[in-house]
Amino acid sequence: MEEVAGVMQSHLDRPVVDRTKLKERFEFQLQWTPDETTRITSVGGPSEPPKPKEAETLPDLFTAIQQQLGLKLESTRAETDLLVIDKVEKPSEN
After folding, report:
1. Region label for 57, one of left (φ > 0), alpha (ψ between -120 and 50) or beta (otherwise)
2. Longest dimension (CA), the chain
3. How far is CA 64 from CA 1, 33, 58, 59, 86, in A?
4. How many angstroms separate the CA atoms of 55 and 26, rounded?
5. Which of 7, 41, 48, 71 lies 20 to 30 Å (CA to CA) from residue 15?
6. Averaged in consecutive runs of 10 residues, what is the pLDDT profile of the chain (94 residues)?
7. Helices (H), 1-94
């Protein structure tokens, strides 16, 4: 589930923390319609947005996770690692 949280984070505009404590690997396919809070990408790279008729029947990401996987994304506060880059310079020519 840690990998799933990582993939979910790539689709959302905020960090995703796995609190399931599940360590097994699962195979599943999640079908959802991107909205203003999600990025239209997939693990393999950019994906095509769903066709208009198909998009009408697919739920948003949060609903799809709950309905199709039985999991729930909750907005909460949690500690997370953060990388801060405070200076960038071009390398010297030697």
Report:
1. alpha
2. 59
3. 16, 9, 8, 6, 38
4. 26
5. 48
6. 82 81 85 71 47 69 88 82 91 85
7. 2-11, 52-57, 61-69
